Amino acid sequence: MKAAVRVAGIGVVHAPGGRVGESADTSRRLAAILATLARTGSAVRLIHPIEEVAVLAAHEALTSGGLSVPAGGEEVGIALGVEEGIDGLKAEYYRGILKDGPLGASPMLFPLTTANTVAARISILFDLRGESFTLCGGSLSGAQAIGLATVAVREGRSRAVLTGGVTTVARDLLDALARTGRPDEGEVGSGACLFLLEPSPSSGGDGGTGELLGYAEGFGQQAVRDAVQACLEDAGFRAEQVTSTRVASADDPRALLEALRRIAAGATVVRSSGGHRFAASFPLAMAEAFQAADVTPGPVLVVGTDCLSGASAALVRGRAPR
């Protein structure tokens, strides 16, 4: 059993159809954040939806976790999962080159073809000077980022870590999935779900939004079983103590559900509504578990799989409202 990690703040942003600007509320919020940052010397122009949702979610997670922004210092790190959002940007960039040659190489898009650009953008804007990681592990990259962040907090390498997943789902991606025999029910849009993780107070006290009790990964034919068992061991819990299970994403939903029922037979299984947000799917399922703490006060198992025979599992416990 290892120490639980406090989830101090959460930032969740959905932008159906792509751009944040399509919603007047999120557009105003983003403009206000950028104006505030500009007054502190962090003026920047955001050119892509993946940047917009990342900045919005990061600001919400940091401020709801009690941090002022810009944060400053070297105590706050970042671990960010991206994947298909960056792939879409690369496709858009190279389409211009194929069409117009060197003149079609957009200097605006070029920096965003590098996977760690979004994490770097957040770090610079909010002055996060701790360790920085970018994960590109497909649909589980957000989960893997949370796993890295958990280790960093537990080992004391960072006082706090901003972590989760950010994505932009383009039509090209959905069309490509359909052509390869993996049609997805999702729609074009952008999304982000970020958490601010901190060490849990040793004396109890304010538990923030909730706790991340354990995390683990598995690979191969028994990936789900291995990930769940290792996660429960990491948290010091037994399978029968799990009150419900949330499916974050699943390459083979039927096989995943069957595996979960064998492992935690008494738990209610719920399919997350964020299942088509790819890199953000797992963090979104965790956020739903925290938000439903008044309905499900006990530990909730969040599980996701990908098309590479990988699985991630997290055991979380929300803090029911008083």
Describe the structure.
It is a single chain. By secondary structure, this protein is an alpha/beta fold. It folds into two domains: 5-199, Thiolase/Chalcone synthase (Peroxisomal Thiolase, Chain A, domain 1); 210-318, Thiolase/Chalcone synthase (Peroxisomal Thiolase, Chain A, domain 1, 3-Layer(aba) Sandwich). The protein is 36% helix and 24% strand. It contains nine helices and ten strands. The protein has helices at 24-39, 49-64, 84-100, 117-126, 141-154, 171-179, 223-235, 253-263, 281-291, and strands spanning 5-16, 76-81, 132-135, 160-169, 189-199, 210-219, 244-249, 268-271, 300-305, 310-318. A ten-stranded mixed beta sheet has the order 3-2-4-5-1-6-10-9-7-8, with helices on both faces. Strand 7 (244-249), helix 8 and strand 8 form a beta-alpha-beta unit. The longest helix has 17 residues, at 84-100. The protein is globular, with a radius of gyration of 19 Å. The two termini are 28 Å apart.
